[in-house]
Amino acid sequence: MIQPSVSPEQKKESHKQLRVAAYCRVSTDSDEQELSFEAQREYYTDKIMRNPEWTMAGIFADEGISGTQANKRKEFMRMIRLCRQGKIDLILTKSVSRFSRNTVDCLTYVRELKGLGIPVVFEKEGLNTMHMTSEIYISMHGIFAQSESESLSGNVRMGVQMAAKKGKVNFNYSSFLGYRRGPDNKPEIDPEQAETVKLIYQRFLAGDSLVAISRLLNEKRIPTPMKKTNWGTQTIQSILTNEKYKGDALLQKTYVSDCITHKIKKNDDRPKYYVENNHPAIISPETFNRVQEEIARRNSKRKVKQVGTKTSLGKYSGKYALTERLVCGKCGSPYRRCTWTSHGVKRVVWRCISRLDYGTKYCPDSPTIYETDLHAAIMRGICDLATHGTAAQPVDALKLHVKAYFGKGNSTAEDELRAQELISRITQAAAGGVYSEEMASMVAELNELKQRIAEAKARHSKNALSNQRMDGVMAAINKLSDADVEFSDDIVRQIVDCVRIQSADKIEISFKNGDIHEMLLAT
Which CATH fold topology does 187-296 show? Predict the structure, then answer.
C-alpha cells in the first residue's frame, strides 16, 4: 500500500499566510459608479490587510466594462493568469454578478479555479466554490445575473431607438475625422482635419484608387482618425461613404444583436432614420453624390480573368486612365499596358487581353498599339472636339461645348422679381377692399409664376449633379494649353468615356458629351 502525497489543503496549511486576491468591477464610468468602485477597493484592501492569516495578492479591478465577456476584462484575465501560475490561494468578490454576467464564463472559470485548488468566495450570496453544493447555487445566481444584463440591454436598445426616432445624432469625436465638439456641445468643423477629408474626396474623383490615396496620406504623414500614421483602405472607404460629411446623418446603421457576445450586425430588419442638415457640411451634397456614383461604377466593373496577373479586371486601378477605357474593337475585351524590350530599348504598348492571354484563337485581328501614338491621337481628338463647328481657340471652344452639353443655368431671377412685384400690387389693391378684373388677372399671373418658379427650382435641383460634373470637366480643361496640348490622365478621365481600337491605324473616341470621333494613329 502506497500512502497518498500531501493534499492541496495540507499544502495551503503549510503556508504561513494565504495569498488572497479580490476582484472588483463596475459596468459604467459614471460618478456614482466611480464611488462604488473606490469603495470596493478600499473595503477589500482593509479586509485582507487586517486578517493576520492573509497576505495581499492584489486587488484586480475593471472599471466601466461589462461583465458579459471575460476576455474583454483585462484585470480579470490577469488574475486568472496569476492563478494558473500558482501565485494566488483565495479570491474574494462581492457577488456572482460582479464576477461574471455570463453563465457559461462564470461556471468555466469557477471550475478551472476549483481544479487548481483556489476557492472563490462570493460574499453577498455567502458561497464558497470549494463546497459541494456551491455550483448549483452559483449556476442559479449566474442565470439571474445574465438575465438582468439581457433586461438592461433591452432597455438600452429601446432608449437608442427612441433617440434615433427623435433625430438625436451622436458623434464619436475621438475617432471621427473632420469634426470636434463645439462650445455648445454640437459638432463643429476642425479646419485642419477638414482639409484631409477634402483631399481624399478630390483625389478619388480625380481617379486615384484607395491604395494610391492611402499611399499619398502616408507620405504626407497625415494622422488617421485614430491619430495613427498608417492609413488603410477601409478607413478611406468609410470616409468616402459617410453621409455625415455632407451634413446629414443616417441613424441605426448597425445594432448589437447579442448582449452577451456584443456582436454588431448590419441593420437590414429594423427602422433607420435619416436626419438632414444636422451639422455643418465639409463636402457638398453634389460632390458626395458624385463619389457614390464613382464607387458604384468601380464596383460594377465586369470580371474578366487575366492569365499571368495577380488580380482580375474587377479590381479598379487608378494608375492609368486608359486601363478602363481602352477596348478592343474586334472582341470587346479591354486592352492591357505592356512593356516591350528590344536590343535594350524599352517601348510601352497596349495589347488586347484576350489575344495576350489566350492567343489568336479568340481574337486573331487585334492590333498592338504604341502608347505614344495612342496618346497623341487621343489629344488630337480632344482638340478636334474643341474646334468642332467653331473657329474659336480650342480650349475656349471646348468650354462652350461642355457648357452646352451640361446645360448649366436655371435662373429664375426675373420670374421671382415679377412675382414680388405682383404680390406688392395685389396687397395694395386688397387694402382698398375692391376685387377688380385687373386684380384677378394679377392673381392668375402670380399663380402661373409660382408654378413656373417651382418647376425651375426642381429642374435646378435635379441638374445640380450635372452642374457639379461640368465644373469638374471645366477644371480639367483649364489645365490644357492652346499652344501645347499634352496627354493627361486626369483630363482623359474627365472628358473621355471610351476609346475603341478599330484597326492598327484608327481608333474611335467616345466623349462624355455623347460625341464620337474617329482618329488616325498616323500623324
Answer: Hect, E3 ligase catalytic domain fold (3.90.1750)
Cβ atoms within 10 Å, residue 345? 7
Residue ranges covered by each domain of the chain: 8-150, 187-296, 321-406+470-520, 413-462
Instruction: Measure CA 330 to chain center.
Output: 40
- Percent of the chain topping pLDDT 90: 15
Burial of 85 (C-beta count, 10 Å sphere; 0-12/13-18/19+): exposed
Helices 74-84 and 103-115 cross at an angle (nearest 10°) of 20
Q: Which helix (H) or strand (E) holds 266?
A: strand 263-266
CATH superfamily for 8-150 is: Resolvase, N-terminal catalytic domain (3.40.50.1390)
3-state secondary structure of 521: coil
**Is residue 297 within a helix (H) or strand (E), and if so which, with residue range?**
helix 285-299
Q: What's the CA gap between 203 and 213, in Å, rounded? A: 7
Q: Which residues have C-beta within 8 Å of that of residue 212, sequence separation ≥ 6? A: 203, 318, 319
**Which is more confident, 409 or 78?**
78
| 389 CB neighbour count, 10 Å cutoff | 8
Whole-Å CA distances, 396 to 22, 391, 476, 480, 495:
80, 10, 13, 10, 15
Give per-residue pLDDT as tens, 272-319: 888 888 889 999 988 898 888 888 877 766 554 455 544 444 556 667
Give residues with Cβ within 8 angstroms of 233, minimum separation 6: 210, 211, 214
- Decide if 55 contacts 19 (C-beta within 8 A): yes
Segment holding 491, helix H or strand E: helix 489-495
d(CA 418, CA 509) in angstroms, rounded, equals 47
Q: Are 345 and 358 in contact (CB under 8 A)?
A: no
Cα–Cα distances in angstroms (integers) from residue 90 to residues 8, 106, 133, 488, in the given order: 13, 16, 19, 74
Cell for 398?
Answer: 471646348
Secondary structure of 157-219 as H, E, C letters: HHHHHHHHHCCCCCCCHHHCCCEEECCCCCEEECHHHHHHHHHHHHHHHCCCCHHHHHHHHHH
**Do 58 and 130 meet the contact criterion of CB atoms below 8 Å apart?**
no
End-to-end alpha carbon distance in the chain: 107
